[in-house]
Amino acid sequence: MAEQIPMPESSLAMDEILDEARADDTHEVVSDVAWRRLGIVNVVFVGAAGSGDRNWVLIDAGIPGTRSLIEAAAEKRFGAGARPAAIVMTHGHFDHVGELESLAEAWDAPVYAHSLEHPYLNGQSSYPPGDPSVGGGLMAAMARFYPRKPVDVSSRLRALPADGSVPAMPGWRFIHTPGHSVGHVSLWRDSDRVLIVGDAFVTTRQESAYAALTQKPEMHGPPMYYTVEWDKARASVAELAALEPEIVLTGHGRPMSGPEMRAALHRLSSDFDEIAVPKSGRYLTEPARAEDGSAYR
Question: Structural domain of residue 253, as residue ranges?
C-alpha cells in the first residue's frame, strides 16, 4: 500500500475554518469559492454569494442522485432560479459527471472540458476500466464495477480555450494535468493562489471506503484505481507543487492551506513513486494514452 502523508496538528486550525458550513450548505475557502461534499466527492461553486443568474460557475457535477442537493446549494448561495454561466469539468469519471446531463439541460448551460476529455463527454468512448489490482481498500477492490460509459452532453460541450483561460471565470486559468485521466485539468488563480485540483492529487486516501467517508486529512496522489498514466500523473503533481498554492481544493477530501500543506505537497512531488504509485497495477505497464488511442478503446 502506498505511503500516506498525514497533516500535522498545527495545520488544522485554518482547515477547520475552511470546513465551516454556511447556511447554504456550502463551505467557503475564500469569498467567491465554495464547495459542497456529496458522499465521496466534492463539487465547487465559483462566484460570490448572491451574485444571481449566470454570474457563477459549477466545477464538476457530483455523483448520481445528487442533483437536488447541487440545485439547492446553488439556489441558496446565488439566488432563486440562478443558473450558472458554465459548468467546467476537471474530468469525466462517474463520480464527477453524475448529474452533468440533467443539470446542463435544466440550466441550459455550456459544458467546458479539455478537448482530450471530450470522447468521454460526447457519448463516443468509455473510460478504461478501473484497476482493482492496485489494492489499498474497498474502493479500489470495487473498481471493476464502477460505471465507465460516457455521458453525452455533445450539444452543449465546448473545448477549454487554447490560451488557458476559463470561460466565465476571469482571473483563472486551467492547467492540463493528465495522468488520472488524459484530459484532466486543474484550475488556478494567481491573485490569491487558490488551486482547484480535481483528482490530480487528493487529500484523503480515496482507495479506502473508511477514509473516503471519514475524510481524515492526508496528502495523497490521484486515486490509484483510475489513474491510467503514472508518468504524467507524476509530472502533473510536480507542476502544481511548483505553483506554491495557498489553498488547495481537491475532488476528494477537505481543502488544505498554508505552509504545512505546501510542505506535504512538495514531499508528494519529490517522493511520488514511494507515496503515490501502487506496487503493481495494469496501467503501470500498459498506460492508456490518448496519443496511441488506447485511452479510448
Answer: 5-296
Counting the structural domains of the chain, the total is 1
- Domain of 287, CATH number, reads 3.60.15.10
Q: How many CA atoms lie within 13 A of 97 on its CB side?
A: 26
CA distances (Å), 285 to each of 231, 263, 278, 288, 297, in order? Answer: 11, 30, 12, 10, 17
Which pLDDT tens digits describe the chain residue by residue (297 residues)? Answer: 455 565 444 344 345 545 556 666 799 999 999 999 998 899 999 999 999 999 999 999 999 999 999 999 999 999 999 999 999 999 999 999 999 999 999 999 999 999 999 999 999 999 999 998 887 667 767 777 788 999 999 999 999 999 999 999 999 999 999 999 999 999 999 999 999 999 999 998 654 443 445 456 789 999 999 999 999 999 999 999 999 999 999 999 999 999 999 999 999 999 999 999 999 999 999 999 999 999 999
pTM of the model: 0.92
